[in-house]
Amino acid sequence: MECLKDKFVGGALLKGRYQTISPLNHGSFGMVFKAQDLVTNEPVAIKCLTKRSACPDADSDFAIDEKSEEQALHSRLGTHRNIVNLIDSFETDSHIYLVLEFCGQGDLYEAIRKGHGPLETEHVRQFMIELIDAVDYMHSKGVYHRDIKPENIFLTQDGAMKLGDFGLATTEKWSYEMTVGSDRYMAPEQFDSAGAGYSPAEADIWAIGICLLNILFSRNPFTTPTEADPLFLDYSRDKQSLFDVFPSMSQDTYEVLVQCMNLDPRRRSLEGAREALLRVVTFTTDDEDDDEYCGAESPNVATANREPLRTPSIQSPAVDTGAFPWAKALHGTTHLGRQLSVIPDDESYTEVISSLLSTPI
């Protein structure tokens, strides 16, 4: 069988049980497609990973070894209500197939982009607590995601969330793999070129805070948490500079973010974030006007009409990206005043995402 990177065949029967329906997503290591489980008569999502041995040498960088680490991670995790659970797995000479729960409402990124994400205070609270529950459970099993972002948070028909895509996850408690993840959701220490490494668990907690800001304001606070980003430099001097970036953010929301996005990774806390969420009265100063959840007519609340950026996952050697010397910031002596840095109005944060469904395969 040829290397499956760009081809999809609908109506094919896999393992005598799963009938392929349509592609859902496509990445460097393979493809995810929807299928029907003919035994349970339920839809499933199947992740097809290409084995390195099945690809030409030119494509070997976009394939996996014969043993799927992601499959092993799912076995280690078991099942949880807020994780996209593994139902089945099988393989051929050229591919490994992971049969996963199908989440009928797609991913959080699309929900935010279309204005269908959680808006009302109680729904935002419940959504974020479910995300924390998923991460807490995952960490208790010794698995660290390293790529938490709206594109990897999926929504079920009943509005619950499930964290998925463990392709970049690790079981190492301390990692020296820099710039692994999605840059807009990565923690500052993941860009540190000094080689000291970082805690993947603490990096996951940082990403939770960025996801909350995406849910509330449809955008990220920084392009990357490095010295090359003036907004992040503001934040490193004074965390309250977030109020300049998000003027309608409530103090309650800020208290949650402090638990997630502390520059000192050791001071980030899932339990602290959970407790802060339970104390939230309103997430934004205009929450009283938002009394809908997943409303079809909800306006896009992106600052300056900017849509959130679908951020590709990366796994590459450490490069010089103007990494912020985050460790030095913990011992700074001079407190600088708040400084508002402005993103130019003509700078776009929108990417054109081509749809597999509209492209013949």
From TrEMBL:
Gene3D superfamilies: Transferase(Phosphotransferase) domain 1. Keywords: ATP-binding, Autophagy, Kinase, Nucleotide-binding, Protein transport, Serine/threonine-protein kinase, Transferase, Transport. This is non-specific serine/threonine protein kinase. One of its GO terms (cellular component) is phagophore assembly site membrane. Pfam families: Pkinase. It comes from Fusarium oxysporum f. sp. cubense (strain race 4). Its EC number is 2.7.11.1. It is found in: Preautophagosomal structure membrane. GO terms for biological process: autophagosome assembly; autophagy of mitochondrion; piecemeal microautophagy of the nucleus; protein transport; regulation of autophagy; response to starvation; reticulophagy. One of its GO terms (molecular function) is ATP binding. Residues 18-278 form the Protein kinase domain. It is a peripheral membrane protein. CDD domains: STKc_Pat1_like. It catalyses: L-threonyl-[protein] + ATP = O-phospho-L-threonyl-[protein] + ADP + H(+); L-seryl-[protein] + ATP = O-phospho-L-seryl-[protein] + ADP + H(+). InterPro entries: Atg1-like (IPR045269), Kinase-like_dom_sf (IPR011009), Prot_kinase_dom (IPR000719), Ser/Thr_kinase_AS (IPR008271). It is an enzyme of class 2 (transferase).
